[in-house]
Amino acid sequence: MPVNKSNHILNTSSNLLGFCLVVLTSLKISKYSAETMIDEFTGVTTILLMASSILSFWSIRSPNEKRTLLYEKIADYIFIVALLFIFLITFMISFSIFF
């Protein structure tokens, strides 16, 4: 029996989406976004987290079990990539590494 991860992906990705929006807003307010690439990485991460949220929601709502599993698998992979981007952003901010 497959484990339903969609609820967890939806909850976590929506929370991390809020984190990304706070980071973007902070960068724009501090006029720091013109000097770094952090806002570009955060924008990509935001899009990935939105896609993951939408796909996990579709997975929950889909009546077709094959589509449910497909949406969940895609949402899971996109979520992992978004987590890697968040790690990169946090690393860049923490150690003042700017591209």
Secondary structure layout:
Blueprint: H1 6-29, H2 38-61, H3 65-94
How would you characterize this protein structure?
This protein is an all-alpha fold and 99 residues long. The chain has one domain (6-94). It has helices spanning 6-29, 38-61, 65-94. The longest helix is centred in the C-terminal third of the chain and has 30 residues, at 65-94. The termini are far apart. The model has no long low-confidence stretch (mean pLDDT 86).
Short summary:
With 99 residues, the chain is mainly α. Helices cover 79% and strands 0% of the residues.
N-to-C SSE series?
HHH
Instruction: Describe the sheet with the most strands.
Output: none
Helical/strand content category: mainly alpha
Helix content: over 70%
Give the low-confidence spans.
none
Gap between N and C termini: 45 Å
Beta-strand percentage?
Answer: under 5%
Number of strands: 0
Count of domains = 1
**Count of alpha/pi helices:** 3
Keyword list:
0% strand, 99 residues, mainly alpha
